[in-house]
Amino acid sequence: MNLKAVITGIQAWFDDRFGLSQIFKFLREKEVPQHKHTIWYYTGSAILLFFGIQVITGFMLVFYYKPTLEEANKSIARIMTEAPLGWIIRSVHFWSASFMIAIVFIHLFSIWITKSYRKPREATWMSGVFLLVISLAFGFTGYLLPWDALSLSATKVGTDIPRSIPVVGIWITKLLRGGEDVTGDTLTRFFGFHVCILPVFIFILLGFHIYFIQKQGMSLPVDVENRNEDVNSLPFWPNFVYREMIVWLLLVGILVTIAIFLPPSLDKAADLMAPAPEGIKPEWYFLFLFQILKIFPAKILFINGDTLAVLLFAVAFILFFFLPFIDNKPAERKGKIITVIAYVVIVFAVVMTVWSLL
Amino acid sequence: MMRSRRIALSLLLTCSLAFFFMNSGFGQQVGSDEQRSTEEKKEIVTQTETEKEKLIPSPKNIKEGTAIYVFVGWMWLSIFVLIYILRLKIKEIDRLYKIKFFSAKRE
Amino acid sequence: MKLKHSLFSRRQFLNGLLGGWLGALAASFLYPMVKFIFPPYREPDKVVLSFSDYQDMEPNSVRNFSWGTKPGLIKKNDNGTYFAFVAVCTHLDCNVVYLTEQRKFFCACHEGWYDENGLNIGGPPPRPLRQLIVEIEGENIIVKREGVE
């Protein structure tokens, strides 16, 4: 009874009941086009890799973390000192979050610039926008969990921003904070978001996002498509998967190395009554928004500066969400302008981020 | 074609690395592991006695510190070996695809 | 000795090498993760208690103390000596109680009985209560694990 026969037997058992061979057949027949923008195809699975790492390290951290005002900071200290190699697990979770969001941005702009959201892929784009919001929400809620002075202040500022939205703003703030102010209840609520509510939503949306991609196949950039000649393509399995494995190995290597040599420290527990510490700032992916808010004057005409800024963010977000419908003539001048706008946004965000650090 | 893409990818990686190193304004310790492990053992002892300002993570002892270096070395060695093997497999599987080995009827 | 045919083909060799090395790398990642999930349980070597807390005990009575994370009972015997037990039932880990009148330790979970020396005499417990070494040194009672010092 050799091993190959056993494995074939088990595969046949599953296939008879679940039709798994259809999935493998699909993966073998799925084609990945080869052209000068193929490199951006790797960003999607890279995000999935880091998300998987977040889930696994998150499972491990949640074994020891205690989401209450009194215990949060102490439990993380315990993870870093008592739990064997806990500081590495926490460090990987911390860095993988940043890596994931960085690649989400790269993925987003690559889709925008190659206009992969064109018909029939509008829904993929829109589910992707929701995924972006959820990823940022993961980062925001996770940032509070160590409950140190910096994260407390950042959360106070972050949850105060919706307040300037007319009518509904105050309710959004109260929903996020679990009351008027940031308290121990906010911490527990953010923990609930971080480990329960947001994961449910991200899994549902990821399911849609990935299903749409499989159903519609990989998109081609506009200029490649318009060339009307046959594009070279590789089967997804195993050709493209082997290439992805190389990318994954390198990414994991870089992540673990950085996590081991640059682990995050832990400040002492936050004091709700103490004044805000100096140099408070949100995570790097919010810095550009932070800077925009800072440069808005307190009042423009009769409108509160903050309200105007938040309304501007909202308008920008809505335009961003409906981008596939706005960019309905991608090959023409309007389409080219939208591509230029993508580059402008990138430069603007980078400039704002760097400015906020000075 | 592949070469320019590889260059672009490695440039991107270097820039990202630079960005992360620059952006370590989250209060991380920049210093070697061993330095930390002996310094911080003392620091943690005194710090746990009083209200500590900042807990800086480090390996618990020299044995753990060395094990971490060995692990990182082993990990990178494995990664390079695995990438080498994967490149061989990619060459092979691309060749097979080109000669349409899988779409032909098997005897 | 030269083989006529290879044991396996070049493809099999490469596949095996890839899979095997990948498995080894995965295992080296898994090891610290497993260590993290199963933290080492450290039992104290000894516990030092203040004798004044146990001096005024009646003969045939018990008083509790902490043996690491487990409950412990110090029993003063009729002849004035002291016993120390880990007050955890050897059946399924419930905490036991000492019934003074009957001179027996009792576990309420499945009605396990131990006599006044901790020997299991009734019910499901398979072993006697774990006994620790008691030493009185001046102002302290020292409760030690077996085989320490």
Topology, element by element:
The complex is a heterotrimer of chains A (358), B (107) and C (149).
Chain A: H1 3-18, H2 20-29, E1 31-33, H3 42-62, H4 72-81, H5 86-114, H6 122-144, H7 149-160, H8 169-177, H9 184-216, H10 222-226, E2 233-235, H11 236-261, E3 266-267, H12 287-295, E4 299-300, E5 303-304, H13 305-321, H14 323-326, H15 333-357
Antiparallel strand pairs in A: 1-2, 4-5
Chain B: H1 2-22, H2 33-49, E1 54-55, H3 62-98
Chain C: H1 10-37, E1 46-50, E2 61-67, E3 70-76, E4 82-86, E5 97-99, E6 104-107, E7 112-115, E8 120-122, E9 131-137, E10 140-144
Antiparallel strand pairs in C: 1-10, 2-3, 3-4, 4-9, 5-6, 6-7, 7-8, 9-10
Describe the protein.
By secondary structure, chain A is mainly alpha-helical. Helices cover 70% and strands 3% of the residues of chain A. Chain A has a two-stranded antiparallel sheet. Chain A has a two-stranded antiparallel sheet with strand order 4-5. The model of chain A has no long low-confidence stretch (mean pLDDT 91). Chain B is an all-alpha fold and 107 residues long. Chain B is elongated. The model of chain B is unreliable at 23-50 (pLDDT under 50). With 149 residues, chain C is an alpha+beta fold. Chain C has 2 domains: 1-40; 46-144, Rieske [2Fe-2S] iron-sulphur domain (Rieske Iron-sulfur Protein, 3-layer Sandwich), CATH 2.102.10. Chain C is 19% helix and 34% strand. Chain C contains 1 helix and 10 strands; from the N terminus they run αββββββββββ. In chain C, β7 (112-115) and β8 form a beta hairpin. Chain C is elongated and about 85 Å long. The B-C interface holds B 71, 74-75, 78-79, 81-82, 85-86, 88-89, 92 and C 11, 14, 17-18, 21-22, 24-25, 28. β3 of chain A pairs antiparallel with β1 (54-55) of chain B.
